[in-house]
Design a protein that fits this description.
Largest sheet of chain B: 6 strands, mixed
CATH architecture of chain B: 3-Layer(aba) Sandwich
Shape of chain A: elongated
CATH class of chain B: Alpha Beta
Helix content of chain B: 25-40%
Helix content of chain A: 55-70%
Distance between the termini of chain A: 30 Å
Radius of gyration of chain A: 33 Å
Largest sheet of chain A: 6 strands, mixed, barrel
CATH superfamily of chain B: P-loop containing nucleotide triphosphate hydrolases
Order of helices and strands of chain A: HHEHHEEHEHEHEEEHEHEHHHHH
CATH topology of chain B: Rossmann fold
Structural class of chain B: alpha/beta
Oligomer: heterodimer
Bound molecules: adenosine-5'-triphosphate, magnesium ion
Chain lengths: 403, 239
């Protein structure tokens, strides 16, 4: 009996190509949309999380200028920091893992016939620890180089690729502005940031070297501070703020003329934003799931009249109620699963393409795949099966007379 | 079925004061107002009567497609009113063939698959199924039309597919509600010859509604309906 019912169900699916393919289409759209959107959204979140962990999450950035005026103190007329400020923070604030005074300039770098504009960062070895940089080759600065402001540099991976593809850069000399500068170390790449910045596109020189030979002043642009694990960055932040107000003799009613940015806060905002993005995409996807579901429902309900007559005919020639129901169930399950599988395949393909286009990692959420499949297929089965249940319980003649 | 032994003893059909009412309250229509009918094995009965007199209603009850409002229906001695839905389905499947006034073929389904349908529910194997269905179609003169769907067939051709579907299972009783209603007289006569031969050669009991006295003359017995009652019954000894 089961075999006959399968045969009948298959004949019915094949016969009603239009109805069958519309049902499948509804499910395909629902499933594929949800998988694509959620996967891409998750990829973006993952991307941000990766970047943040590579940045170092216990990081605080101290800059001159008021926070709402943005970074770059000169514009707001606030005095720049000096190396003494960094020393004071290191000496007087409890719970710090490292303090790195930073001077940055954008400058041209030349190697052979190649020239390239990049970010020059002047700092100490602490910079590497504070910002989670790891050497892939060479060495860090030694004390003599740091004190004397020697013409040495550690290059980011982008610069290595730009100038030294296929060669060992260690020991080679590049020109930075007007200084001939020896490469002593290369950094491991951190990769492209999702916000369009290439984190590896910079080179590090001793603070003194940049101050004296490039910037021509003893100012420092900002101070990067990393808190020890387990130390509250909030506490460190208020301590630094108090210390700096003291040092800069800010009056009681005056606003700070510097700002301390807690990376953890930025991290929270960023992950919050991407989570919101995922939720938003998820909502859009849920709508398409719903629309797909309504489509399926519509097709099923529209065909009820015709199908009720069909049920009447089947009952009249000797089908049992349960055989008719089994037929409808098989039809619904076959169509729904078929649609669901196509939807999953399409959804994954679109996710891979989307993740590639947006340069975010491809993170497949099996839970979402399952949920969208179960929901869509469920709608297909429920609306394929339940109208039939009512009709199959009628006397054959009533089902035949159904308008 | 379990009661096949009763096949040669007693009447195949016995209706006792059967009524059928449609609707409720003021809209109530009494389509059958107390019908007593007895039909023996191998009989060939023509049911006649004006439009709306309850012929189709009576046929539907006889074909176990509908249930009486009151009264009893015994088929081969079994009280149909006591049977479950599934048992009635099995009764239809194994003993009854039905030709509807409005054909009731499956749309977008070939003539052959329409005729195969009752055999599928019987669990007949594919090869035998298509052989039998082709033979049934041939017996109603539709060889060569197997792959056509109802929409591609004329009214008369559809009617013949419906007849083929009803007889393909070799039922004990064939109910036919105006089986020649859409056919020209030559084609009608062919169908009547066919039914007569089934009746004579296979002992198929035939109950047929017709408005045409010419068609009724093929039957052994004529029952006339009027306003939900049986007006008279006459035997048709001529043939
Ligand atoms: N489903 C129904 N609901 C309400 N009334 C019905 C229904 N079916 C039949 N009737 C009524 O029952 C009466 C008998 O109808 P029936 O179809 O049995 O007549 P008939 O003798 O077959 O007529 P015809 O020769 O036109 O086919 C009619 O008055 C009809 O209006
Ligand atoms: Mg009628």
């Amino acid at each position: 009996m089961f075999f006959e019912t399968i045969l009948i169900a298959m004949r019915e699916i094949r016969r009603n190509v239009m109805r069958s393919s519309l049902t499948i289409l509804g499910i395909v759209i629902g499933v594929a949309a949800v998988i694509t959107m959620v996967t891409v959204g998750d990829g973006a979140t993952k991307q941000v999380a990766n970047e943040i962990s590579s940045l170092g999450s216990n990081l605080l950035d101290v800059r001159p200028g008021q926070s709402f005026r943005g970074p770059g103190g000169t514009r707001s007329g606030a005095p720049m920091f000096k190396i003494a400020d960094a020393d004071a923070i290191e000496r007087e604030i409890f719970g710090l893992a490292g303090v790195a005074p930073i001077v940055g300039r954008t400058a041209q770098v030349i190697y052979g016939n190649d020239n390239y504009v990049t970010q020059i960062t002047g700092s100490t070895n602490n910079y590497l620890d504070v910002r989670n940089w790891v050497l892939s080759g060479g060495r860090i600065f030694n004390d003599v180089e740091l004190k004397a402001g020697a013409a040495v540099c550690i290059i980011g991976d982008t610069i290595r690729k730009q100038f030294f593809e296929g060669q060992d850069p260690i020991g080679r000399t590049i020109r930075v502005v007007k200084i001939s500068c020896q490469v002593i170390g290369v950094l491991k790449p951190k990769g492209q940031s999702g916000f369009g910045t290439d984190q590896d596109d910079f080179l590090l020189m001793p603070l003194r070297t940049v101050q004296r030979r490039i910037a021509g002043s003893t100012d420092i642009g900002s101070i990067s501070v990393s808190a020890m694990d387990g130390v509250s960055t909030d506490k460190v932040k208020t301590d630094i703020e108090r210390l700096m107000r003291e040092r800069r003799q800010t009056g009681k009613n005056e606003d700070d003329d510097f700002n301390v940015r807690d990376m953890q806060e930025i991290v929270k905002t960023l992950t919050g934003t991407t989570k919101l993005l995922t939720t938003l995409l998820g909502a859009v996807a849920a709508v398409s799931l719903l629309v797909g579901g309504i489509g399926i429902m519509n097709i099923m309900l529209v065909s009820v009249t015709e199908r009720t007559r069909e049920i009447g005919i089947r009952l009249a020639i000797g089908a049992m109620e349960k055989q008719v129901l089994m037929q409808f169930l098989i039809e619904a399950v076959v169509l729904s699963c078929f649609g669901g599988i196509i939807g999953i395949i399409l959804g994954i393909a679109a996710s891979v393409a989307g993740a590639g286009a947006l340069k975010v990692p491809f993170v497949l959420n099996i839970g979402i795949v399952a949920i969208s499949f179960v929901f869509s297929a469920g709608v297909g089965v429920v609306f394929g099966y339940f109208p039939a249940r009512k009709a199959a319980h009628l006397d054959p003649i009533e089902a035949l007379r159904h308008e | 079925m379990t009661h096949a032994s009763s096949e040669n003893s007693g009447p195949v059909i016995e209706l006792n004061s059967v009524t059928r009412r449609y609707g409720t309250g003021t809209a109530e229509v009494s389509a059958l107002q107390g019908i007593d009918v007895t039909i023996e094995h191998g009989d060939f009965v023509a049911v006649m009567g004006p439009s709306g007199s309850g012929k189709s209603t009576c046929m539907n009850i006889l074909g176990c497609l509908d249930t009486p409002s009151s009264g009893s229906y015994r088929f081969m001695g079994i009280d149909v009113g006591q049977l479950s839905r599934d048992q009635r389905a099995l009764l239809r499947r194994h003993y009854l063939g039905f030709v509807f006034q409005g054909f009731n073929l499956l749309n977008r389904t070939s003539a052959l698959e329409n005729v195969e349908l009752p055999l599928i529910y019987r669990g007949t194997h594919a090869k035998e199924r298509s052989q039998k269905a082709k033979k049934a179609l041939a017996s109603v003169g539709l060889t060569g039309w197997e792959t056509h769907t109802p929409a591609e067939l004329s009214g008369g051709q559809q009617q013949r597919v419906a007849i083929a579907r009803a007889i393909v299972t070799d039922p004990s009783v064939l109910f036919a509600d105006e089986p020649t209603g859409n056919l020209d007289s030559a084609r009608s006569r062919e169908i009547m010859e066919l039914l007569t031969s089934f009746n004579r050669d296979r002992g198929l009991t035939v109950v047929m509604v017709t408005h045409d006295a010419m068609m009724a003359s093929y039957a052994k017995r004529i029952i006339r309906f009027r306003d939900g009652f049986i007006e008279n019954e006459e035997s048709n000894g001529g043939r």
